[in-house]
Amino acid sequence: MGTLEVTKNGRLNVANYFVDTEFTDLPWNDRSHLLWIAVVDESGSREFSAVVEDCPLDSCSSFVRANVLPKANVEPIKLSRDTIAKRLAAIVDDAPTFWAWCPSLEDIALLGGHEEAPYRYEHYRDWDHQLMVGLFEERPELWPPNCEDLHSLADDSAIELPLNPNPHHPLSDARWGREVWRLALQARS
Description:
Number of strands: 8
Helix content: 25-40%
Structural class: alpha/beta
Radius of gyration: 16 Å
Strand content: 15-25%
Strand order of the largest sheet: 6-5-4-3-7-8
Largest sheet: 6 strands, mixed
CATH class: Alpha Beta
């Protein structure tokens, strides 16, 4: 699950990062684009959140229009996809482990129909990670091809989920993911 270690130069090497995104529509729809991303490290000392400044807002679903855009409109940082990628690369240490709340097969069936659910689960369950890596022409060399699943970790650890004070706000959601991870680690100790 990653650990904190201090490198020879005294820099804290943080291995775990918590990712959350918001997107214009469900990832399997052609109209889906990354709208907003946030990443928080396990120590809580490094955070990054930005709205994609040139995201095509006309492709937003009614859910996103009602629940995400009002929050994105007050987000102070709006950057190009390239700038977001550069900033992420600058704050993430080598060989990170990324964590995100991945939907279950049942969640995906509720969102997009039962017939397509197994295919969509297989291809889109780690959509936050996919959208983050999609900011780069090539995935950074030491970044993993997948993320770890906070949903499964929480279920396996039988923890009570903490309250998320601001759902559908990626920075709040990433911080919440970090807290879920911390509680799961404590439950396993």
